[in-house]
Amino acid sequence: MKSIYLDHSATTPIRKEVIEAMHPYFSDVFGNASNIHAVGQKARKNLEDARKKIAGIIGADFTEIYFTSGGTESDNLAIQGVTRAYKGGKGHLITSLVEHPAVLNTCRYLERKGIEVDYLPVDADGLVDPAAVQTALRPETLLVSIMLANNEVGTLQPIQEIGEITKAQGIPFHTDAVQAMGKIPVNVDDLNVDLLSVSAHKIYGPKGTGFLYVKQGTPFAPLFYGGHHERGYRPGTENVGAIIGLAKAMELADLERDNFFATMHRLRTILEAGIREKIKNVRFNGHTNKRLPNISNISFESVDGETLLYVLDSQNVAVSTGAACTSGSTGVSHVLTAMELSAELSGASLRFSLGRLNDEADIGYVLDVLPSVIDSLR
Ligand code: PLP
Questions:
Q1: At 352, is the pLDDT very low, low, confident or very high (cuts 50, 70, 90)?
Q2: Which of 19, 267, 291, 366 shows the smallest number of beta carbons within 10 Å?
Q3: Cα dihedral angle (136, 140, 142, 143), rounded to 10 degrees?
Q4: Residues 6 or more apart from 134 whose CB is under 8 A from it?
Q5: Best of 104, 106, 146, 202 to mutate for ligand 1, by most ligand atoms within 8 A of CB?
Q6: Ligand 1 centre and the CA of 364: distance in Å?
Q7: Domains located in the chain, CATH noted
Q8: What's the pTM?
Q9: Of 174, 133, 131, 183, nearest to 154 (Cα)?
Q10: Per-residue model confidence as pLDDT tens digits over 126-168
């Protein structure tokens, strides 16, 4: 039986076009992009073309793109990079309670090193209040880091507005755009951000690749030391093939973004309407409209989310519990807790995240099996 994958916020299958674009770089074009001979320079040229393509898509200059191993590294490089560049006394960071662990745990680590951190609360829809950012700013604030779209509930943060506030104060602003890329417009000037993280494997590209955008002039230091790759800010021989794949995935995601948004929105509306009609005592988590089009986070009262996940898996439907971006992790979601859901409701939640290969038949199948599975678990 066909398996129905509704966990695209965890990862996506690599597109055929992306595999085709990457293929030569694992055989014919194998050169080290730092070598000056023709073999190396061929790889260098293609690597720099990929950098330019990516920069063009997000409205950046190509010198502002630093290739990394993905979202986690980009978030670390942004937050630790800006903090390390600071040579003054006590520093201060502002973030939110609903960030990805790549941001939250980096901030917690820096707290242990003496940096003070404000973790801003969110409202019941998962939104950060820009006024709270304004209030939390201090003379020693080094960076504000607020995600563009949440990975558990899909809520879109008011990044433009927050960026106006940080810009007026001359404080660097980082956003984690890992989930947002390819679904909504991502332009660094429109968003008013100084640093922005992206990961390839969330947009039908390869795992272990991504980039950090850092606006020119932003105080910034590397996390580790080595050669002059990525202008010395991220040393290590570049994974040219994967970077070519990232650029191809970005190009396709950008070209197809509006259609993709519309398709995801249509399918999710069918899913949510069907669940609302067929299953009682459910709660939809996340903002109604200010939300990614492909994520639906739902609490099924009196059901254990993890058990539900296993039962659906046995019926060939792959979803996540709320807490799981770090897959395999279980328990109460820090995002739903911040949105003031009880531990019980949080533990009764599932995240359905739709993707480009899903169709109405997939949603129909879920709507056929889910009500009886919920009934039996209740
Ligand atoms: N940030 C967000 C919002 C994510 O959803 C993820 C994915 O797990 C990451 C960062 C980490 O990205 P990566 O898996 O590329 O390290």
A1: very high
A2: 19
A3: 10
A4: 165
A5: 202
A6: 29
A7: 4-12+257-377 (3.90.1150.10), 16-252 (3.40.640.10)
A8: 0.97
A9: 183
A10: 999 999 999 999 999 999 999 999 999 999 999 999 999 999 9
